[in-house]
Amino acid sequence: MGFNIAMICDFFHPNVGGVENHIYMLSANMLRRGHKVIVITHSHPPDRVGIRWLLPSLKVYYLPYPTIASSATLPNYFAFLPYLRSIILREGVQIIHGHAGLSSLAHEGILHAHLMGVRTVFTDHSLFGFDDAASILTNKLLEAALRNVDAAICVSHTGRENTVLRARLLPDIVHVIPNSLVADQFKPAPSPPSGDTITVVVVSRLAYRKGIDLLIATAPRICALFPNVRFLIGGDGPKMIDLLQMREKYLLQDRIEMLGPVRHSDVRDVLIQGSIFMNTSLTESFGIAILEAACAGLYVVSTKVGGVPEILPEDMISFANPDEDDIVRAMSEAIRLVSAGKHDPHKAHERVRGFYDWRDVAQRTEAVYESIMKSQPYDFWTRMHRTLDLGPVAGIIFAIILVVDCLFFMFLEWWLPEDQLDKVQMHWTPERFQEVVEEYET
Amino acid sequence: MYTEAWEAEWERVLWKKKPYPDNYVPRSFLASLSKNPNFRPYTYWHLVILSCPISQHLASIFVFLAVFMRLQQRLLDPRVLVWISVGVFMAGYLAWELLECSRADSQTRYTNRAKTLKASILVFLALMSLSPVLKTLTAATSSDSIWALSACLFILNALLADYTPMNPRSHQRERLTSVLSMNAAISSSVVLASRLSDDLSVFGLILFSVQSFALFPILRRRIQDTAKVLQVALTVLISTLSLALTYPLSNTAAYIYFACFTFVTFIAPAVLVWAQRYKNEIRGTWDPAVPKVNRRFSFSR
């Protein structure tokens, strides 16, 4: 019998993005492996509220919390407990799996978990620095949230080093399990793009952190060097205006095509129009966009930052320093290599398919769940001591939060005793479903 | 036993199938971490020199307050103050000219001089005609409120003032905070002026405040850019002047000022030098890279 898992994150469907997709795919594959998975997130009024089911029988709780900025809820530490307690007890959840460093819902879930004897796992998806005020604050919040977590998962070795430093965790409870992709959704074009024209594709949020300044500086130079190169740029963001100005200034309207925002389901159709994918990010934890492009058979040129050097073997990607001249050099080499026909899209697709698979990710995550279920949980006094170790100021604040949380939980136990809650009855199991399908087919 | 084999197998890649568990900590873990990479320790005397502008600014506020007290208690004839102001202005302008003469050509200097003359006559006349209005502007407000308000405004002035040297070659625009700082000081002197008895005192005080809070900071920032000796001499001179003017009025205030100067010039730099031992800047591969672009576009975050 599998585990009962609750994925908690502020960022989930109907929003789109890397984290959202990761949670959905991981949940779907966990369901396939015979676990019971629910997702807890905040609601998206007016219509995305209450309890919904997503396609492979994934139950999603949309809790009524207002968001403050970029779809994150306000960290308040207590308001979530009444909902969470009812959900966890009714569903019989054994493991809480929080996602994303800036999701206060995930932090809160991890804080409350021990009250109900639930074990905790946290997945960190992004990289953060240490040197500005916002990072210092969010790193402290993360450290406090992860003080008593049973295991953490990071998507790359760089991410792991970053998380270990930010949250001051012991490195052996932090696991490296990469992100993955559905290779079938990124099949290369049946026939390679014809003609002499080489199309360079850029699909990215047009923001400073994605290195759009480098793109703006290099695109005109590459266009001048190679008359047969055109650019296809998908995405939207604050740097859009700068890009448009560059295109106007160098009169490149016919060679640089701007597509505006691209839906994730349409990304493959954009990718297969080109043969080189260019990524100029300044920081990247994993770089799923690069992987998707490589899977769609494009040759990748990327800046050597964060976890990007870890995701593909060196013959499928060429690296440049985040420096205008070096990017022009790497792009020129890539254009020569592709025009000489030395890059086979279908071979690249098959190779990526062999590297990454969600089933593998789910299996490795399951191993993490098994290891924490076998381990001993911290008792209350150990938790208290560990919380006080946070620091002379933060330690006391979070110790008070811990104690008030326990008192609040005792009040809820008295107000709404566990035996008065309706337990969720599941009449369907994956085995039963399989049987019915077989009966239907025969 | 496994560890050796795992260590040999370990690679910093994600795409390979690997024999070691996901939470295996390799020996190269955190190898790319660097601490305090661009760390240049401060030296004590360098910081002492850098703290001079702060002392100068505080001293100019203290001198102004001493002058105000004397005017209010009728220890100082307002006509003398006006003549002193004019004299100080001449001296300051001479110093400015001497600093400028190395730079601009004679034609620009000539036009600049004409402009300055016109502006100073305008300000002089405007203040003279406005002083009866300024005198009664906040006359109805009780003295307690005036003292509190002007104290707050002077603190604001000291906090927001621009203590960086002015580089005459780069035509940088005045920062918003330094404009706010100047406005705070001038408003403070306007509210103080309402406690004075006659129009000429008000005129003298406002003229002096324009000198100390609008013109002096410009000269101070210009001097900061040049000789260190001049800067130290100016600091000593103006600090001594503020103490000398305050001591007959109130020795307690003079002692507090003295403590203030000692703290800003000698103790605060020592604290900063001592605090450097706790500096711990962590850099690694996760930090956002700084894009190197040959300057053609201005880029902002």
TrEMBL record, chain A:
GO molecular function terms attached to this record: phosphatidylinositol N-acetylglucosaminyltransferase activity
Domain PIGA GPI anchor biosynthesis: 46-132
Entries under Gene3D superfamilies matching the protein: Glycogen Phosphorylase B (3.40.50.2000)
PANTHER family: N-ACETYLGLUCOSAMINYL-PHOSPHATIDYLINOSITOL BIOSYNTHETIC PROTEIN (PTHR45871), PHOSPHATIDYLINOSITOL N-ACETYLGLUCOSAMINYLTRANSFERASE SUBUNIT A (PTHR45871:SF1)
The keyword Transferase is assigned to this record: yes
Organism of provenance: Polyporus arcularius HHB13444
GO (cellular component) term, any one: glycosylphosphatidylinositol-N-acetylglucosaminyltransferase (GPI-GnT) complex
EC number: 2.4.1.198
Top enzyme class: transferase
Protein known as: phosphatidylinositol N-acetylglucosaminyltransferase
All copies of domain Glycosyl transferase family, residue ranges: 190-336
Pfam families attached to this UniProt entry: Glycos_transf_1, PIGA
Known pathway: Glycolipid biosynthesis; glycosylphosphatidylinositol-anchor biosynthesis
UniProtKB/TrEMBL annotation, chain B:
Chain segments annotated as transmembrane: 44-68, 80-99, 119-140, 146-164, 176-194, 200-219, 231-249, 255-275
The keyword Metal-binding appears for this protein: no
InterPro entries membership: Plno_GlcNAc_GPI2 (IPR009450)
Record pathway: Glycolipid biosynthesis; glycosylphosphatidylinositol-anchor biosynthesis
Pfam families: GPI2 (PF06432)
Membrane topology: Multi-pass membrane protein
BP GO terms, sorted: GPI anchor biosynthetic process
Location within or outside the cell: Membrane
Statement: the UniProt record of this protein carries the keyword Kinase: no
Protein name: Phosphatidylinositol N-acetylglucosaminyltransferase
